[in-house]
Amino acid sequence: MTLIGRTRERGIHTLSLDSPGNRNALSAALVGELADALTDCAKDGDVRAIVLTHTGSTFCAGADLRDPPHPDALVDLLRQILDLPKPVVARVTGHVRAGGLGLLGACDIAAAAHESTYAFTEVRIGVAPAVISLPLLPRTDPRALARYYLTGERFDAAEATRVGLLTATGDDVDAVLAPILDGLRRAAPQSLAETKQLLTARVLETFDRDAADLTALSARLFASPQAREGMAAFLERRDPPWVL
């Protein structure tokens, strides 16, 4: 079964997360297939930019707790998006949770519909937003991250734009994206690659500095008794024992 849809129109290659059964959660299989699709796009001289979008009402629900990717695989995917020589544009019309916000943080541009919602839910299952912090911490308002990392609160697209998770939002996400994609089509491929490298250089510098430590933190927390209980509670649709 294919988990990544692929379409192309006038130099824009659209990759769609297409695993509605688990709300496009980051399973080992989906992460691997998305990485392969991005590699193909990087090699294709006819691809000017990539749009990363989704089927169903959820862009990405975070890690698939039944089949999670190894932390190293998620690190590699986020770095691949940052280092890709072509712009990656997120198109969101639904909900984004936990690890899905890491994908947004790695994209160069992110646009969403007003009805989309966001939450860093890691603390509610006994883990932390460790690996996804690699692209998020350098690009997002630190005071906002402190609040939403620590509380797991849900917030809307307007707030996501204010704090730097999104580039733009509107009633019709495709109308929002139209001038952006037109601009990318008008740009010289070499200029896009060099300008993206200019924009991501400092993000990649901290990414490479911190990747090993945050990968180890993620692995340690996911293996902890609290996380096992938190994930079991989530899958069983009940509160974990620490809820007051």
CATH superfamily heading: 2-enoyl-CoA Hydratase, Chain A, domain 1
| Shape by Cα distribution | globular
The CATH class: Alpha Beta
CATH topology: 2-enoyl-CoA Hydratase, Chain A, domain 1
Task: Please indicate the percent range of residues in DSSP E strands (runs of 2 or more).
Answer: 15-25%
CATH architectural grouping: Alpha-Beta Complex
How many whole angstroms does the radius of gyration measure? 17 Å
User: How does the helix and strand content classify structurally?
Assistant: alpha/beta
- What is the strand tally? 10
| Main sheet makeup | 6 strands, mixed
Q: Output the strand order for the largest sheet.
A: 1-2-3-5-7-10
Order of helices and strands: EEHEEHEEHEEHHEHEHHH
What is the arithmetic mean of pLDDT?
97
Helix content: 40-55%
What low-confidence regions span 5 or more consecutive residues with pLDDT below 50?
none
Spatial gap, N to C terminus: 42 Å
Q: Can you give a write-up of this model?
A:
- The protein is of the alpha/beta class and 244 residues long.
- It has one domain: 2-enoyl-CoA Hydratase, Chain A, domain 1, CATH 3.90.226.10.
- It is 48% helix and 18% strand.
- The strands form two sheets. It has a six-stranded mixed sheet, with helices on both faces. The protein has a four-stranded mixed sheet with strand order 4-6-8-9.
- Strand 1 and strand 2 form a beta hairpin.
- The longest helix is centred in the C-terminal third of the chain and has 34 residues.
- It is globular, with a radius of gyration of 17 Å.
